[in-house]
Design brief:
The chain is α+β, with helices and mostly antiparallel strands. It has twelve helices and seven strands. Strands 1, 2, 3, 4, 5, 6 and 7 form a seven-stranded antiparallel beta sheet that branches. The protein starts with a helix and ends with a helix.
Length: 376
């Protein structure tokens, strides 16, 4: 059995590595071509374009590796079937259950590799790519309305209406060096009345959630009782302001940066923060479950590739089977992307929306495997 494992694993690993390198080379070329039209604008050089293409490779690896596992394993299994090596192994006692168990081990190893790249390497390089783009383009724009963050916290004592504050923070853009631009802060009391508004030209999140704001314009509105006593709105202009908040740097980064730049743990923490603030969490819950379950797609792809070894050589050459694997991989990617949007539209349970594509393809692979073993 050790010889069988060495034969299968060596062939499968080399095939998967070859397909993965081919995919990464193709997407690197596409990224470079896409970046060429930005060269020369705002200090964006050709070296930055190549650097951004290299930084995007871990993310592409994470997205494409399950498909590379499927195509590489199909190629390896189809080649063994065409040369009758797999038939000899079956005659020597390699039953269906044992063959499925043999492929499970490299599938778990591939899943672990996908998890490590997706949780540790890809988020780091994605953030570096965003910082590179922000440094070349004068900052990271966040759309016409910017990014919004919310928190609920107790305020300084001063009456029943001051027992709790609801805070909304708007950030218009982010510059290089983790500096935030165009900051607006609105504090509402428990009755929904605006109590304080702060506008700062720039700012930075310091340790333990303290925001260091620069060039601040602050407006304090009186309570209805204070207004009846003739107290007016207080306006202050400050060169800087230390604003205490529970919105720490990780929460701010999660709101400003793309979802793919977050690890599984960071997604879980940000989802918990949104739930605590009574904000919509389904989008990030689906992203969390997709991030957590996506590495297991490698195991599903290994199971999906095994039925191709039981197809007789006259059922089609290796190229036809590889083409079928490519079509299966594309359909998996399309279904995996569509399931997230369908889950949002139909309000599916997040883990169901995330696990549906892998579960469906696993059932397809086991069904095809059982049919081929029994009737072919």
């Amino acid at each position: 059995m050790r010889t069988v494992r060495r034969l299968l694993y060596r062939d499968i690993i080399w095939s998967v590595v070859f397909v993965a390198l081919a995919f990464l080379s193709l997407f690197f070329f596409i990224d470079i071509v896409d970046e060429l039209d930005k060269v020369g604008r705002g200090g964006y050089t050709l070296s930055r374009a190549f650097a951004r293409g290299l930084l995007a490779l871990p993310g592409h690896f994470y997205d494409l590796f399950p498909i590379a596992v499927l195509i590489g394993t199909i190629y390896s299994m189809a080649r063994l079937a065409q040369s009758s090596e797999f038939t000899i192994l079956r005659t020597a006692g390699l039953g269906p259950g044992r063959a499925l168990g043999l492929l499970a081990l490299p599938g778990v190893v591939f899943a672990g590799l996908t998890f490590v790249v997706g949780d540790y390497v890809a988020p780091y390089t994605e953030r570096a790519a965003v910082a590179l783009k922000a440094g070349a383009g004068g900052g990271l724009t966040l759309g016409s309305s910017g990014a919004w963050l919310k928190e609920r916290r107790a305020a300084a004592p001063g009456g029943a209406s001051d027992s709790e504050r609801n805070v909304s923070v708007n950030v218009l853009a982010a510059a290089d060096g983790q500096q935030l631009l165009g900051i607006r802060i609105f504090e509402f009391d428990a009755d929904g009345r605006l109590r304080t508004s702060i506008e700062a030209r720039s700012g930075q999140v310091q340790a333990q959630g303290h925001w260091q704001l620069l060039q601040v314009e602050q407006s304090d509105w009186p309570t209805p009782e204070q207004a009846r006593r003739g107290l007016a709105v207080r306006l202050k202009s400050l060169p800087d302001l230390d604003w205490a908040s529970s919105l720490n740097s990780s929460v701010v980064a999660a709101a400003l940066l793309p979802v793919q730049s977050m690890s599984t743990l960071e997604l879980w923490r940000y989802t918990s923060h949104l739930a605590d603030q009574d904000q919509a969490v389904q989008r990030h819950e689906i992203a969390f479950w997709k991030k957590a379950l996506y590495p297991l797609a490698c195991v599903v792809m290994m199971a999906l590739a095994l039925p191709f070894a039981y197809l007789h050589a006259r059922a089609g050459g290796v190229s036809y089977k590889v083409f079928g694997g490519i079509m299966l991989g594309i359909s998996f990617v399309l279904l995996n992307n569509a399931s997230g949007y369908l889950g949002l539209l139909r309000h599916w349970t997040p883990w169901v929306a995330a696990a549906a594509p892998s579960g469906l393809f696993l059932l397809m692979s086991l069904g095809a495997f059982a049919w081929l073993v029994r009737f072919r």
